[in-house]
């Protein structure tokens, strides 16, 4: 992916002074077109000392993070525009041939907005779930409840604001060993805080966060009407800490070779004893015919299953009640919303104020009916001409990446042939999927906000289960058109570029080619490069997880990876917290490979532009500044800490400073040895 939620960009002109600072004579000026933002520059910072601050320092000093956000960036204007557009789409049904879907979209949004009705209902919508939990009296009943509440693990792609702690997550995707079929992937879960480190790290910041979480859990149990809520909260948090101890780290979870573990249904009782697996699978509606599973974090699944058997039922029931109210907090009365935000918003993300209700309603509707909303978004805001333009740009990046493969001196002809085959068969989706999802099976009831959310979650789960036994659809999308992001699906050998990212400021129709190649070109190159990062490079052209490298080529590739890991391990945003070069390796490879491919594509497409001046800058300078300004962003400290611990992407500053590995950047900005970012040629990372 390009981001978890942090892709940044900016636009408009850049001044003559920077060009002179680069140490070259100013060529004749070309007509100015929208591109690099001159007002964002901080000329007091030399490009070779910190390119991120050089490109963005003035913007960072002169903009404050709004009270309802955990970060702010030039991109935020694009997010606001998309949010407003979606709001306009969902407020009123439009009628016509899609009247049923329009009605569901409108009713879902309108029901969420009925705050007075939600307040009047209180916790009554939650009572059936709470009664079921209270009635659990055996380990088999506990296993059945856990199976009944198993859900598709899609929050990471759709809405990270939804706080769920299902004990396990399910993801139905291609079998990595047999990419012509779907298989269920079982994933670790069960934590109310973002990551195991929040439970196990002994730093002062984490100890403080744990204390606040304990208080939050007590408050939530008190809202449920539980007596002795403080003591019960302590037992629940202790249980989650035990779950955290068996969890895999983020870096380990991202290792495909470690995660690709095939278990048969009959393996579970012996490999993960303690959970009544037959009762679990039956309640989860996983058909008896489905015998094969991929268990991504096997020791975690084993450890959690043991806890199901070992920990008191009373503690498990309190745990389940807590997460029942947490999962649907947004659809419950103000007191629940406020308490949920007080911890997850203020403590975890550092955000002072809750977002306006209509914005939360837009987000909720996007999660529940994402492609239905996306179809209308694409029809109105992404014309066929824009799709064609971007598809042409993607092909330029594909050609440039292929030529980079051809020029690799260290790679053998056999490995190059496999890499080129993979590149040739890469399926690229631009704007929106080829086929839209059918929501006729989702019931949306006017005025039933809570029930609509429950039914939407169950509908999503059934939709994933229905893929089992069907032919693999390489045209499937995992992002909606209104999502500002992009993704590479290695087993599909496919890319998704949603419509919302293919607009200003990421892509400027009619804008400066140097800027566009540095911004959206690097985004496209980033996603292509994911097919050849440390994990993507392990999949062949068919999506089969296998080694298609010669031993010598793979050894060279791994050595370059280790150099990049060391480089990012050296970045320390906080005195007590460094970037994890291993955790961010895939994204760092994609950033570097994407930037290099975008640069080559720019030089191929605009061979006379590199030395053409606009706003006092050469084309190459505008290219690199477009890349750096794409990452402009300010973060609240808690949000930045959370991202460092949980995100596969490095913080924005270090992504922008990827340029230190690109030879052309040194030439373009006259970077000298001894400057902070300067690396001697032999220490610059060279992978693709």
Structure description:
This protein has 688 residues and is mainly alpha-helical. The chain folds into 2 domains: 334 residues, 3-Layer(aba) Sandwich (Collagenase (Catalytic Domain)); 181 residues, Neutral endopeptidase, domain 2 (Orthogonal Bundle). The protein has 30 helices and 10 strands. The strands form 3 sheets. The chain has a 5-stranded mixed β-sheet with strand order 2-3-4-6-5. The longest helix is centred in the middle third of the chain and has 24 residues.
Name of the CATH first level of the largest domain: Alpha Beta
Instruction: Tell me the total number of β-strands.
Output: 10
CATH superfamily membership of the largest domain, which one?
A: Collagenase (Catalytic Domain)
Sheet-strand content, in percent, reads 5-15%
CATH architecture term of the largest domain:
3-Layer(aba) Sandwich
Q: Would you identify the regions where 5 or more consecutive residues have pLDDT less than 50?
A: 4-32, 155-162
Mean pLDDT: 90
Biggest pleated-sheet summary: 5 strands, mixed
């Amino acid at each position: 992916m390009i981001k978890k939620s942090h892709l940044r960009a900016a636009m408009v002109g850049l001044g003559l002074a920077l060009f002179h600072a680069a140490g070259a004579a100013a060529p004749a000026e070309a007509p100015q077109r929208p591109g690099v933002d001159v007002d964002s520059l901080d000329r007091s910072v030399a490009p070779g000392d910190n390119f991120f601050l050089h490109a963005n320092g003035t913007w960072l000093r002169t903009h404050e993070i709004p009270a309802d956000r955990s970060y702010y960036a030039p991109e935020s204007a694009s997010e606001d525009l998309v949010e407003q557009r979606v709001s306009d789409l969902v407020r009123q049904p439009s009628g016509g041939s899609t009247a049923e879907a329009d009605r569901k979209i409108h009713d879902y949004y309108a029901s969420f907005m009925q705050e007075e009705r939600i307040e009047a209902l209180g916790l009554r919508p939650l009572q059936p779930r709470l009664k079921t939990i209270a009635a659990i009296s055996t380990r088999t009943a506990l296993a059945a409840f856990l199976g009944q509440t198993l859900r598709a693990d899609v929050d990471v792609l759709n809405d990270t604001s939804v706080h769920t702690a299902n004990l396990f997550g399910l993801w139905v995707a291609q079998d990595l060993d047999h990419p012509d079929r779907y298989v269920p992937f079982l994933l670790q879960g069960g934590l109310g805080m973002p990551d195991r480190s929040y439970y196990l790290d002994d730093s002062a910041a984490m100890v403080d966060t744990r204390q606040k979480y304990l208080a939050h859990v007590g408050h939530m149990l008190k809202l449920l009407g539980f007596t002795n809520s403080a003591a019960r909260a302590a037992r629940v948090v202790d249980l989650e800490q035990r779950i955290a101890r068996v969890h895999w780290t983020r870096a380990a979870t991202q290792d495909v070779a470690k995660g690709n573990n095939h278990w048969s249904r009959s393996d579970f009782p012996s490999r993960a004893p303690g959970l009544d697996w037959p009762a679990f699978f039956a309640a989860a509606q996983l058909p008896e015919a489905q015998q094969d599973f991929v268990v991504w974090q096997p020791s975690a699944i084993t450890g959690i299953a043991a806890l199901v058997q070992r920990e008191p039922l009373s503690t498990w029931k309190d745990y389940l009640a807590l997460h029942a109210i947490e999962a649907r907090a947004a659809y419950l009365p103000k007191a629940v919303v406020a308490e949920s935000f007080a911890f997850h918003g203020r403590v975890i993300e550092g955000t002072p104020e809750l977002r306006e209700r209509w914005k939360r309603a837009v987000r909720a509707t996007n999660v529940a009916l994402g492609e239905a909303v996306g179809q209308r978004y694409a029809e109105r805001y992404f014309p066929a001409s824009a799709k064609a333009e971007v598809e042409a740009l993607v092909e330029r990046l594909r050609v440039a990446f292929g030529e980079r493969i051809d020029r690799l001196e260290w790679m053998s002809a056999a490995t190059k042939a496999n890499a080129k085959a993979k590149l040739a068969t890469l399926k690229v989706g631009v704007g929106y999927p080829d086929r839209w999802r059918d929501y006729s099976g989702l019931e949306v009831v006017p005025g039933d906000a809570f029930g609509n959310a429950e039914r939407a979650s169950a509908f999503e789960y059934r939709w994933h289960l229905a893929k089992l036994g069907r032919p693999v659809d390489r045209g499937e999308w995992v992002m909606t058109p209104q999502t500002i992001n992009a993704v590479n699906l290695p087993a599909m050998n496919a890319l998704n570029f949603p419509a919302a990212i293919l607009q200003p400021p990421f892509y400027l129709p009619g804008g400066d080619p140097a800027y566009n190649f540095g911004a959206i070109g690097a985004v496209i190159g980033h996603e292509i490069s994911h097919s050849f990062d440390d994990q993507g490079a392990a999949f062949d052209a068919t999506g089969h997880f296998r080694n298609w490298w010669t031993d010598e080529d793979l050894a060279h590739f791994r050595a370059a990876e280790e150099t990049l890991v060391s480089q990012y391990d050296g970045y320390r945003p906080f005195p007590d917290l460094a970037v994890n070069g291993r955790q961010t390796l895939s994204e760092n490879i994609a950033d570097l490979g994407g930037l290099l491919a975008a640069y080559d594509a720019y030089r191929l497409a605009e061979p006379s532009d590199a030395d053409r001046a606009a706003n006092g800058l050469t084309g190459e300078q505008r290219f690199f500044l477009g890349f750096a300004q794409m990452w402009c962003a300010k973060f609240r400290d808690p949000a930045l800490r959370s991202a460092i611990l949980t995100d596969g992407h490095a913080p924005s500053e270090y992504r922008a400073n990827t340029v230190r590995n690109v030879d052309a950047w040194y030439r373009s900005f006259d970077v000298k040895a001894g400057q902070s970012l300067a690396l001697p040629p032999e220490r610059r990372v060279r992978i693709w």
